[in-house]
Amino acid sequence: MLGGTRGSTDAPAAESRRGDETKKNPEMNKPLRDTDLVPDDDGGPLYAAGKKIYPQRVSGSFRRIKWILMAVCLGIYYFLPFVRWNRGLGAPDQAVLIDLANNRFYFFFIELWPQEIYYFTGLLIVAAITLFLMNALGGRVWCGYLCPQTVWTDLFFAVERLVEGDRRERMRKAEEGWSLQRGSELVLKHSIWLMIAWWTGGAWVLYFADAPTLIKDLVTFQAPMVAYIWIGILTFTTYTLAGFMREQVCVYMCPWPRIQAALTDEWALNVTYKYDRGEQRTSLKKAAQARALGEQVGDCVDCNQCVAVCPTGIDIRNGPQLDCIQCGLCIDACDNVMTKIGRPTRLIGYDNDINIHRRMEGKPEIFKPLRARTVVYSALIAGIGAIMLYALLNRSLLDLNVLHDRNPVAVRLSDGSIRNGYTIRFLNKRGFDRVIAVDVSGPPNAVIHIVGADSIVPDRPMIILARDATTELRVLVDSRPSSEEDLAPSTPVAFHVTDIGLGEVASAKDVFVKP
C-alpha cells in the first residue's frame, strides 16, 4: 500500500529484487552506524537522520504540467486580490474579499453573511471528497502537483538551480566549502527566497482589505499592526517550510500520506516502476551484450536518474513508499534515458500491481476508473454541489431573527391586554435601501408596535431598512383576548416581513406567553 514505510512494496518480486541489489551492492548488508539514526531516550532509533537532497533538472511532459500548474496557482494567489468587481455604489469592488470588519465574504457576484457559514462547510466537504476521488484515480495527485508545499518548494528549487547550478554543481560547491563566490550565491539565493516568502505573506493579507489601499498603507507604515504581524508570520513559515524543511513536511508533518494509504485500493494508478520490464537490471553495455546473445535482460540500466530528479530523494524502484509525492518527475527522467538508448518509454509510469502481474501472465492491461468508490465519490460531489447551488440561487436576501425578552417575559396592561417584548434583527442583503412592512399573527387581536422607529402607516408598521446592513429594533406585541380561556399559557407567534416594492417575504417564529 501507499502508506508503507520507505522501501516497502507489495510486489511479489520485491524481495528477489532486493536480494539482487544486495549482491550488487554489499554495502546494503552492513549494519547502520550510530550516526545514521538519531537515538531516543532508551538508546533505540527514533527517526532517520535528515539528508540533503539535490534534485536534478529534468524536462518532459510531467515537468511541463507542473510548470503550468505552478504558474496558474501562483498567478491566482498573488494577483486575485487586484481583480475588481462592480457591486454598486458604496459596496467594495474587490472581487474576492474577506471583510472581517463588516462580517462579509465576497466572491465575485456572491456575498455571504455570517449566518450562511454552512456554505463554507459544504465547500470543505466537497473539497475533502474531491481529494478522495483524486486519490482513488491517480494516487497522490494533489501532493505532486497542487499542494501549496509542493508548489512553493518547486519554486524555491528553481531559484536554487538558477543561482547555484544543477545537481552536480550544487553538490560540488557544498563539498568545497566557503568562498567569496559561494557566499555571494547563498546571499542572492536566500534574498530571492525571502522576497518570494515576503510577497506570499503580503498577498495573503490583501484578501482581508482593499488591496491597493492596503499596499499604500503598508508602504507608508499606516497599516494596522496585525497586517505586519501576519506578513511576518507567513514570510517566516514560507521561507522555512519551502526553503529548508521541504520533503520533511511531506514525510513527517503532513497527515495526508497516512490517510490516503487507508483510502486507496489496488486499482488506483500510482507512479510505479514496472519491474516486469525493468528486471533484471544491468548496465547498458552488458545489456547490449546479453541481447546480442539472445538473453533476456531488463530495460533498467541502473542510471539512477529517477533518484537524481526525485524531490524527496527516494528510489521508486523499491516500490510504493510513504515519501513518494507522485510528482511524475522520475517518469520524465526515465523516459529521456529510454529514448536515448532506444528502448520503449514508460518504464516508470502511472500503473498498478494488477496490470504488472497481468503483463507477466501475458494478459492485456485493465484500467477501471469507474468503480464503486469513484462512482460514490462523484455522486456525493455532484449531489452536495447541486444542493449548495440550489440553496445559493434560492436563498432569501431578506431575513429576520427574533429574541424574546427574558425579564419580564410578559406584562398585563391597565386595559387588560397582555404585552410581550421582542428584539428583532432585520437583515437586508441587497445593495439598496428597501421599505418593509411588519405583521404579526398568532395571539388573538394582536397589535404590533416598533419602538423608536417612525412607521409610515400607523396600523401596519412600515420602516426603511438600510442597504446591505443589519437593523435591530425593539418590538412590542399586545394581545387582548375576549376571555382568559382564549389565550393559552404559551401561544405561537409569527412575525412576517414584506418588501413593499419587490414582494419578498421573510418570517420567523417565537412564542407569546401569559404573565
Automatic annotation (TrEMBL):
Any coiled-coil regions, as ranges: none
Gene Ontology molecular function, alphabetical: 4 iron, 4 sulfur cluster binding; metal ion binding
Positions of region (Disordered): 1-37
Record domain 4Fe-4S ferredoxin-type: where: 290-319
Transmembrane helix listed as a keyword: yes
GO cellular component: plasma membrane
Biased composition (Basic and acidic residues): 15-36
Record field: transmembrane: 67-85, 117-137, 192-209, 221-242, 375-393
Keywords for the protein's UniProt record, in alphabetical order: 4Fe-4S, Electron transport, Iron, Iron-sulfur, Membrane, Metal-binding, Transmembrane, Transmembrane helix, Transport
Signal peptide: none
Matching InterPro entries: 4Fe4S_Fe-S-bd, 4Fe4S_Fe_S_CS, Cyt_c_oxidase_cbb3_FixG, Electron_Trans/Redox, FixG_C, Ig-like_fold
Keyword Glycoprotein: no
Protein name per UniProt: 4Fe-4S ferredoxin, iron-sulfur binding
